[in-house]
Write a structure and sequence with these properties.
With 206 residues, the chain is α+β, with helices and mostly antiparallel strands. The protein has nine helices and four strands. The chain has two domains: 76 residues, Glutaredoxin (3-Layer(aba) Sandwich); 115 residues, Glutathione S-transferase Yfyf (Class Pi), Chain A, domain 2 (Up-down Bundle). It has a four-stranded mixed sheet, sandwiched between helices.
C-alpha cells in the first residue's frame, strides 16, 4: 500500500487526488501529529511534503516526480497523456509549476529563509514581490498550457490536479478570476470532478 505523508491545505492534496484517479489503496499520514512528523523525518530529512512511500518501501519526494511516477505506473489513470508529444507538454507543465509557482510560494511562506537579517520591512517587500511574480507566472501558465488541461468530458490528468491545488494559495485564484477568467473556469471544473471533489473538500472544507 502507498503511504502518503502530508497535511491539510498542502501539496499532498494533488498526490492524494492522483492516487484516487489511479484507484489504488493508500494511507494518508498527517505529519502534524508527532508520530507522523517523526516517521516523515526518517524518510525525508528535509521533512518536505508530499512524500510518498511506495508499496516496495521506496521513497519519492517532489510533487512533479511523484505525479510522473504514478502516471507511468498506472497508464489507464490518464494522469499522463498516452501520446508522446502531449505527454511531453504535460511533463513540461508539471515542472513549470514546481519550479516557478511552488518556488514563489516558498518565499511567501518563509521569507526569513532568504533574508539576513529578516527585518519586517524587508520581509514584506520580499513577500509582495514574490506574490506579484507568482501571479504573473500563473498568467503565463494559463497562456501556455490551457490547451493541455481538462475540459470536462475527459479524465483530469496530473497537470490538472497540480494546477487545481497550487492555485489555491497566496490569492492566486482571486487574481486569475479577473486576469484569466477562462483559465479560472477550467480550475473550477477540475474542482467539481466527482473523483477529485471529495479530496479537495477534505483539504479545504470551507
Amino acid at each position: 500500500m502507498y503511504q502518503l505523508y502530508g497535511q491539510k491545505d498542502s501539496g499532498a492534496a494533488a498526490i492524494e487526488a492522483a492516487l484516487e484517479l489511479c484507484e489504488v489503496p493508500y494511507r494518508f499520514i498527517d505529519v502534524t501529529a508527532e508520530d507522523g512528523e517523526q516517521a516523515l523525518a526518517k524518510l525525508n530529512p528535509l521533512k518536505q511534503i508530499p512524500t510518498l512511500q511506495l508499496p516496495d518501501g521506496g521513497v519519492l519526494t517532489e510533487s512533479a516526480a511523484i505525479l510522473i511516477h504514478l502516471g507511468l505506473s498506472f497508464p489507464k489513470s490518464s494522469l499522463l497523456p498516452p501520446k508522446a508529444a502531449e505527454r511531453d507538454q504535460a511533463i513540461r507543465g508539471l515542472v513549470y509549476i514546481v519550479s516557478n509557482c511552488y518556488a514563489a510560494i516558498g518565499i511567501i511562506d518563509y521569507p526569513e529563509r532568504w533574508l539576513l537579517p529578516a527585518d519586517q520591512a524587508a520581509s514584506e517587500a520580499l513577500i509582495n514581490g514574490a506574490r506579484e511574480r507568482l501571479h504573473w507566472s500563473w498568467e503565463v501558465f494559463a497562456d501556455q498550457f490551457s490547451a493541455e488541461l481538462y475540459l470536462g468530458d475527459e479524465t483530469p490528468g496530473a497537470l490538472d490536479v497540480l494546477a487545481a491545488v497550487v492555485t489555491r494559495w497566496a490569492g492566486t485564484r482571486e487574481h486569475l478570476r479577473q486576469a484569466r477568467p477562462g483559465f479560472f473556469g477550467w480550475l473550477e471544473r477540475i474542482d467539481r470532478h466527482p473523483t477529485l471533489a471529495p479530496v479537495f473538500a477534505r483539504h479545504w472544507p470551507d
